[in-house]
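Run folding on both entries below.
>entry_1
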Amino acid sequence: MAVTGTDTEIGKTVTTAALAAVALAVGRSVAVLKPAQTGVVPGEPGDVAEVRRLAGEMVTGCELGRYPDPLAPVTAARRAGLPPVRPRDVAEVAEKLAAEHDLVLVEGAGGLLVHYDETGASLADVARLLGAPVLVVAAAGLGTLNATQLTTEALRARGLRCPGVVIGSWPDAPDLAARCNLEDLPGAAGASLLGVLPQGAGALAPADFRAAASRWLAPELGGTRPQFQS
């Protein structure tokens, strides 16, 4: 499964960690693949390290490209004088991981159509090569209906399946827009709401994160929460 977002800093990594945690809890083996990690220097923990910290070190982590500037992968690669990550390379690694793991999660960078190389290839191309569903992580507040619908329409236009949407950070005191969005997101997305992660979930102690993760996700994602209400 690929994990994308409607924007950057939307909660993709914490959502990926929650998916990994619930899978590990029922005895499944999990690998997390980050095609391009931007905004980190050599030796600095990236998103894969954060997933393993939260979900558990039993997660196999893999990172293909690492670039110091916090930019789109193709731009960050060019500025660093490093080769870009190409969809075929990502797909090949994902397929090798899938041969040895029950679940492979491919976490994108930024939104769905962020460019990985100079041809304009994106996570959507990776998902197409893999035949993988793409889970969309969205914001809770004003503007999320439009951004989510644009993302899911782009998926459908490319023949890709979206199993649903996860709200990556649900505020402690949701405003009117957020409360209404909880009901309206499935209609805008044309896909089910499959998860709501609380604000600050990534700041929980790992043991608390793992204990709570199943309550944030619907059964379709391995969780135990049957419905989501404000």
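>entry_2
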Amino acid sequence: MTTASPVQRKVPRPRADALRNRERIVSAAREMFTEFGPDVPLDEIARRAGVGNATVYRNFPDRDALVREVVCSVMDRTNEAAEVALAENGDAFEALERFVHTAADERVTALCPMISSTFDQHHPDLVDARDRCEELIGEIMGRAKAAGQLRTDVDVGDIMMAVAQLSRPLAGTACFSVDRFVHRHLQLFLDGLRAPAPSVLPGAAMTMEDLRKV
């Protein structure tokens, strides 16, 4: 006598409209967190996303889950931009430039304060995305250094600190009112990274470990 094997049920895939709603929520949350900080009411996020409050809570049971998803999604897009830069076969420094400008557009640094103040900064999803980002930027910089185009006394932390400082609005100013200056000032910074270096930098190069201690 043989025993029938249990029927393996397929896990249902999310409907396309459910995925679109989730993407709209994350996009709206990213915009509003950047503009107003992590304490913006969730019903305002739902309104901007064009969904009901119940849809927000069905996808994200609490604020921490939504903030984590927003930060990780921005990190993922930043990593994708770094992968695109590494895939280019042209000028290594120009690839670094394009990556830096794209990272600034993602406004990842405007979301960074939420990592320590809103949810566990050691969450596996965040750690994985952050480690991958550090690895990719290191590779981009290494290629530019090997080509003799990037000064050798800088590290990944120097790049990310500059993006953080130059893409964040001044206190008391509207977040989007300084957008027209961000890429101008980033380019000034990038020009200062070119080799041969015209001066000796004080102190030591900033690593990502140094940046995490700031």
